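Hey,
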Amino acid sequence: MKPAVRNKIIISMNTSWNVVNFRKGLVEALQSRDYDVVIVAPRDEYSSLIAAMGCRYIELEMDNSGTSPLRDLVLLWRYWRLLRLEGPLAFVGFTIKPNVFGSIAANLNGIPVINNISGLGTAFVRGGLLLRIAKTLYRVALTRSKMVFFQNDDDRRLFVDERMVRKEQTGLLPGSGIDLVHFAPPAEVHTRSGAIVFLLVARLLWDKGVGEFIAAARRVRREVPAVRFQLLGFLDVENRTAVSREQVEKWVGEGLVDYLGSTDDVRPFLRAADCVVLPSYREGTPRSLLEAAAMGRPLIATDVPGCREVVDHAVNGFLCKVRDPNDLASKMIEFAMMDDASRDRMGVESRKKVERQFSETIVIERYMRQIERLSARAVK
């Protein structure tokens, strides 16, 4: 293998969309300190935008939701070949397959690794054989990582307790960080048309609590007719826990919910909502809640790792029991029955919390600290 290029950083994720939407700030910070950033991800409609970020893009085919050992071995070989050819200062991995197979390939090539475990995924929610395999792969992949960032302490403790990573390798990040200028409360006062709008922003997966959201909507409608329910997000047909398009169309046909499709700019939808809801089974730190909070929206979410870090119960929103549509409905009804001033106070508290704890500058600085340490070692 050729010597490492001291200023080259490879960032790898499972979609180009993820890079463009969530990691632009990190890329710009690296470039401002003269690092050459290379993005490695599968090709999608966002891949062409990476060049505009000043990065070189390398396409890497990846079966994101598949469990074929043969395909995963091919992915490992592709990562190994690519990293051997590129010889970067560091490999920075996000999402499951880059974190596992990219990290193993980097280790085989003697390249330092920085990981971000942004969430545990379906295997950890559902258990079984897939979970045992996932734990084994993580133990192998993370054994030599210089830093493994987690987005909540529950996930970090789980990985440490299960001996998938050593505690001294780990650090905590406040999610992926929020650009507090881009996501800001509207200048005009939020005026309500009469109906309270509850909005769920997420990939439409059962594990995100979409079923509980719909079941709760049925009950809330019976007790508080002047409410509306909206879904915004990808219909992710490739995921094993995806809600089908037919099912969503059925709910829309019943008049239970409005499906708003997907978007590259959630801000207009957040401005129009009174409350953003996420009844997820488990999260890292959910981006949808952070963006909504930054825009001064009250929140309702499940009392699970990731969500409870963003929602202070009865301060900037409500926490409800996981997989319990009746408890979710009761929190929605409680919110709908509040006066405007009380709801507005919750929104103000949401913004304050994001400013204190979840600014993008915090995340970027912690990454830069790790990369600068690797750069200093490479000089010696």
